[in-house]
Amino acid sequence: MNALNVAEYTHTLGLQAKTASAQMAKAPAAIKNKALKALARLLRENVDALQVDNARDLDRARTAGLAEPMVDRLKLSPKVLETCAEGCEQLAAMPDIIGEILGMKQQPSGIRVGQMRVPIGVFGMIYESRPNVTIEAASLSIKSGNACILRGGSEAIDSNKALAKLVQQALAEAGLPQDAVQLVQTTDREAVGQLIAMPQFVDVIIPRGGKGLIERISRDAKVPVIKHLDGNCHTYVDDPCDIAMAVKVADNAKTNKYSPCNASEGLLVARGVAADFLPKIGAVYAAKGVEMRGCPESLAILKKVAGAQLAQATEQDWSEEYLAPIISVKIVAGVDEAIAHINHYSSHHTDAILTTNHVHAQRFLREVDSASVMVNASTRFADGFEYGLGAEIGISTDKFHARGPVGLEGLTSLKYVVLGDGEVRA
């Protein structure tokens, strides 16, 4: 597809999305829910067929030498597909927030003023690797009454095409416009440049992927961007804490899955519990093949752990998102140093404290400047599905317009509504 054809193609997608968005904005809740339930059914009916398409992407990725954590992100296992289907059903069961009026108040003039929740309109989603994002974005778009244009990574093109076909089938079953969810069918990178420069059609762009992609989109976009940046997440083991619980949570936060952005990449340990905690978590990580890149003080303790893979941490390690069985380890004086370290080095995504001290927990919640802050829970819970949002379109590290897992509310806007009875301004 040459540059002229790409421009014409993306212009057509934009025009179709804008037209469909008007129909989606006024679609009744029951019809949107019908589409979501149909999509859940179609996903379950097509597990085997979807895995055939997914296998082509996986084979191509391995042949191209893609790193195993990135290959892992491409997998559409039956479990992943079932989670997608459950997310659709969870969204269908949720109340429809479109059209709700908030904060209606009578003014001295006699008018009543409030705000109505409305769809954003059309959003463009640019993402890498995970094909399940196609379903998450589509289902959230349907429930929120938006239209969307999805541009997945070239490494997942066969999986994404198969999933998008099911989405359009579900929309048609419910009597909604198929153009409400469109997948960019070309892998030509020029399509991205065109998509992010169509303010006449696209109201917001949501990039979800590596730092390079997001920096490029943020730099070149001519429409607002909701950024999903990297996940350098931390688990801080406080003094005092329940050591057994801390080992269990720190293990899960790192090893439950290495490739997601909510896996912990940094482990901070209060000096007062380090001698007790580090040998225990070190043994767990050693057994699972996790390399520990530590400060000198932590390495002095960890070197006694049989089979431990150890390395001296560099300055870069404190800021690194590994997406691999590697974790940085640092001993800190206590909660003050932990908060300072996190606010300096983290990507402001998700950070957790493991503690039995209520005051420390409250300080951590208030002072850590991240999109999700947790007490005595694994950072792996930072997820729209786990938060009860049904699904997420990404985890925003922005402070405007949405922050944290972006679900239904993040895909809406508010407009003022004024109710009167013939009032005029004096």
Task: Describe this structure as you would to a colleague.
By secondary structure, this protein is of the alpha/beta class. The chain has helices spanning 3-25, 29-45, 47-63, 68-74, 78-93, 132-143, 157-174, 190-195, 211-220, 243-255, 271-287, 296-302, 335-345, 358-367; strands at residues 101-106, 112-119, 122-127, 147-151, 181-183, 204-208, 233-237, 264-270, 291-294, 309-312, 326-332, 350-354, 372-375, 395-396, 404-405, 412-419. Helix 12 links the parallel strand 9 and strand 10. The mean pLDDT is 95.
Radius of gyration: 24 Å
The dominant shape is globular
Low-confidence stretches: none
Helix content: 40-55%
> Percent of residues in beta strands?
15-25%
- The strand order across the widest sheet is 10-9-11-8-7-12-13
Order of secondary-structure elements: HHHHHEEEHEHEHEHEHEHEHEEHEHEEEE
Major sheet, described briefly? 7 strands, parallel
Structural class: alpha/beta
**Number of strand elements:** 16
Number of helices: 14
Mean pLDDT: 95
Terminal Cα separation, in Å?
61 Å
